[in-house]
Amino acid sequence: REKLAIFRRHGADSSGTVFLHPGEPFFDHLRAYVCARFGSNALRGGVFVDPTTTQPYLFHLALVEVVRQGDPALPSLIQEQLLDCRLIGLRQEANGDITEAPVEWLLLLKDGEGVGAGALPLITSANDLNKQAHAYALERVARNLAETKRQALQATLPERIDFLRRGYDYQDAELAAARSKLTEKARAGDVRAKGELTKIKARQKTLADQRGLALRTATREPELIMPGEITFLAHALVVPSANADDREQHDADVERVAMDLARAYEEAAGAI
Asked: Rounded to a whole number, what is the distance in angstroms from the first to the last CA of the chain?
């Protein structure tokens, strides 16, 4: 109990589920174990049944990153920095059309067995379709996320530039005032004041360089925001259902998930 933060649902509909938190040792070890054991299977692909469709399609699960690239000319921006990481789902039709889909989509579908003749074109062109999905994730998802991040940072740039300038102006005024006082003391023969005066002059010389570097860094940072890695976690072939009862069961599953989400939201807010 000292090592885990758990939430167990109580009540008549309790399924005995225990929720583990990302970042805790047990969760991370369990995640690593599952990825090591089943990761290759997920990348090889699986078959699911979707009672809401009449044509087979592919579903891809991927991680999309946005990074701030490094700039060796600016000390505080030398290292590349991860700004955002999103889990996305992509639905890809046989004609290549791609749309974003909920990442939980496969959880609502039945396991499939075998592949019908209608899905063979998808299978034979899977490699090309995967390349198209990668290009879509990069250009339509990652690049849009990067542009949103860039615009948000760019919008605050005038305010941050003004803040930096006022800060350095304040330091400059403080140093000038201190130099004036120390100059009078140094002229009066104060040896200690002469030493302090030398330090003040050195700081004044470097302050202008520091100001310029800070302003260049603030201006350059938005320009370095770019799409990062696109990592596919799983691929799936989704086929139509030949069983009329599957649609009814699917609708019931969707309703159950919606009720669970609503209940979790209310319970998190303290409701009973």
From this structure: 24
